[in-house]
Design a protein that fits this description.
Layout: H1 3-25, H2 40-51, H3 61-77, H4 82-98, H5 107-123, E1 138-144, H6 150-164, E2 169-173, H7 179-192, E3 195-197, H8 205-218, E4 223-227, H9 236-249, E5 253-259, H10 265-277, E6 281-285, H11 294-303, E7 307-311, E8 319-321, H12 324-331, H13 337-347, H14 350-361, H15 367-379, H16 383-388, H17 402-417, H18 421-425, H19 432-442, H20 446-471, H21 480-494
Parallel strand pairs: 1-4, 1-5, 2-3, 2-4, 5-6, 6-7
Antiparallel strand pairs: 7-8
Helix pairs in contact: 1-14, 1-20, 2-3, 3-4, 4-5, 5-12, 6-7, 8-9, 10-11, 15-17, 17-19, 19-20
Length: 503
Amino acid sequence: MDEKKAFFCFQGIQKQFCLEIIRFLGIIIKYERGMTMAFESLTERLSKAFRNITGKGKLTEKNMEDMLKEVRLALLEADVNYKIVKDFLEHVRIKALGQDVYSALNPSQMVVKIVRDELVALLGEKEAKIQYKESGITVVMMAGLQGTGKTTSCGKIARLAKNRENRKPLMIAADVVRPAAVEQLKVLGNTIGVEVFDLGVEHPALTVVREGMKYARANGYDTVFIDTAGRLHIDEQLMNELREIKAEVKPDEILLTVDAMTGQDIVQVAKAFHDTLQVSGLVVTKMDGDARGGGVLSVRAMTQVPVKFVGQGEKVDEMDYFYPDRMAERILGMGDLLTFIEQAQEKMDMESTQKTAERMMQGQFTLEDMLVQYEQMAKMGPLGNMMKMIPGLNQFAGQIDEDKAGNEMKRQKAIIQSMTKEERQDPSILRSSRKNRIAKGSGTTVQEVNKLINSYEKMKQMLKQMAQMQKSGRMPNVNAMKKAQKQAMQMNMRYPMGTKRRW
């Protein structure tokens, strides 16, 4: 089976697994969480805005204005700059009038598409990545205030360069103001397998950088990441040091780390650094925290500096490239299938996944395969985060109790692991005595064992249908990835956020 097709198959399987977990475990519960992820409140408010025009035969001036009012409130509550909001709504209104949306048979589809396109334009049209040199050393200078995650981001981006771009990176520990920063970078370097050059904190930052560049040239490194010092606030001493380093190494990229939780302060910090250093890109950190996200939506329009990376957690693999179109679709509740597939490719056992997908596409599915799928899902991280990226399931993501989900998935794995090899291959042989033994061995109940078997039977039936689709030539071809994302967007426009779907 083709690798991409295997992962497309995996996405379909995982979607069904998520649904079965939701049904089986009753994970969808109403509860108040201590904090929300960035853009979650914005997504909910936009959902309300689009509900106002869902089901309307035509778009009138009144319901259009009502919808735009809700969008305006949603953006302002998300801490988007007022001028940006005003321009954004004007563009939506002009496009709606210009495309005859008022007379369209399904105005909600058209308006959602227009809002999506304007969000993409606001976020930057297309992704902006590091432009690596084909020969010589690409130098990336990291800058930012203390507390924004600059040192951690340096390590995470170096890991991306090594693993995804096949670069040979070196990190230079030039933050000699904060002694812990040098040790922190060395620990990160050891974790991700990237060498760190340092001279301790006894030498000036400029000397460390100068010697580090000599070391990089002598040892064949093609990419250098320089972790510079930060301050609690912008001051002349900090800027002078950064100017000196920039003049010394003439970096190809200057990346500024900004904290998503600081809201509109992102714009002010980015402006100050950009005026001094001509920053080439932003690294937005703490997108997994209690951030409203408005600063991210405002910063590019206000500074013309693109967001290049987004950090969504503390782990070294929780940093990714910033894709404006994917972010816009996630804000609108459309999921993010491409990022899901990319993360699966990076985090999963690819050989095992392909073999399992091939067996499933041949209609072969055992409880052993089910156990493998649970283990692969665990590698993908929290269930809620994974569901956000799968079109059709993202509406449930905010209702997931991650602790309960994790514990219950462990119980299901324990049930399967308490079975003999014969029982895993053919659960039809399970009778009362066997089920009692499995329940005792796994610390569960017979009722839970029965529920797991019922979920397995549903999954098996679904996979048989997928196998039949493949044999009849109705499965997506190798080039179906982009098409799948587009279809997902169309599906969400057909059923705008807030409308109920039947599964």
